[in-house]
Amino acid sequence: MSRTALVTGATAGFGLAVAHRLVRDGWRVIATGRRAGRLDALAREMGDRVLAHALDVTDAAAVAALPGSLPAAWQEVDALINNAGLALGLEPAHKARIEDWDRMVATNVTGLIHVTRALLPGMVARDRGHIVNLSSVAATYPYPGGHIYGASKAFVEQFSLNLRADLIGTNVRVTSIEPGLCGGTEFSGVRFGGDQDRAAKVYEGTEPLTADDIAESIAWVLHLPARMNINRIEMMPTCQASGPLAVKRTA
Ligand SMILES: NC(=O)c1ccc[n+]([C@@H]2O[C@H](COP(=O)([O-])OP(=O)(O)OC[C@H]3O[C@@H](n4cnc5c(N)ncnc54)[C@H](OP(=O)(O)O)[C@@H]3O)[C@@H](O)[C@H]2O)c1
């Protein structure tokens, strides 16, 4: 019988690429996100291997009700891809909008832990499962204007490693995926409030990672022998590297 994955944020970018990839690899996919129309279109395109299930990860009540609200045949989730997330703004911390900070924490941190807490007991009870969390190189390497986004992704990485500490003795795996610059998604458009020209400049003159590259890494960790747990994958496009530490000198 084919395995079932639940992907958060499957309406665009990495989540959409992962949904396509896993269906191609023989999985059934519960595609979630806020834009129900896109989920329905995906289900129509992919057929009965995709279940469209609208879900806002910041809606705590809907997330808590998630396992029981799935059709009976879809309730045993083998892999949770915690992908929904966003960055908002690039202003320095002392000028950033506090509402943006709250929304990043609500989505990248609180939303992710609530979805995990909703699905983890079932995985432990069945003694099988895999949680793949989308962190970022921003978890490790600070950049100007990264503040809460980087901190939220550091949380995701550390949460992933701590989950493993609790799950030892079970066959539930956890992986933190930590990509660098990745193009072809809505990420920068969302960050800059829909300013597509500014978003396009982020990728100008670069060959960034693609959503399919991320899907490839996720498919890889999922398909490894059950005895292997990949804790973290940090990846960057070849055109990117961690910069030198900054030093401000007087003139
Ligand atoms: N692109 C990069 O360079 C990059 C690098 C490292 C890590 N990441 C991380 O990778 C993940 C995916 O990024 P991406 O580039 O694919 O971004 P994207 O194209 O903007 O896609 C983000 C997805 O998250 C969903 N989402 C946002 N808020 C949500 C909410 N409250 N509830 C449910 N779904 C929500 C969106 O769906 P709806 O709007 O339909 O809800 C969308 O499907 C994010 O966690 C991001 O932080 C991205």
Indicate the topology.
Elements: E1 4-7, H1 13-24, E2 28-33, H2 36-46, E3 50-54, H3 60-64, H4 66-69, E4 79-82, H5 98-126, E5 129-134, H6 147-167, E6 172-179, H7 187-191, H8 196-201, H9 211-223, E7 232-235
Parallel strand pairs: 1-2, 1-4, 2-3, 4-5, 5-6, 6-7
Helix pairs in contact: 1-9, 5-6
The site of NADP nicotinamide-adenine-dinucleotide phosphate has 28 residues, from helix 1, helix 5 and helix 7.
Output the structural class: alpha/beta
Strand percentage, roughly? 5-15%
CA radius of gyration: 18 Å
Note the total helix count. Answer: 9
Question: Biggest sheet, strands in spatial order?
Answer: 3-2-1-4-5-6-7
Distance between the termini: 68 Å
CATH architecture: 3-Layer(aba) Sandwich
Globally, the shape reads globular
Comma- or semicolon-separated keywords:
alpha/beta, globular, 251 residues, 7-stranded parallel sheet, single chain
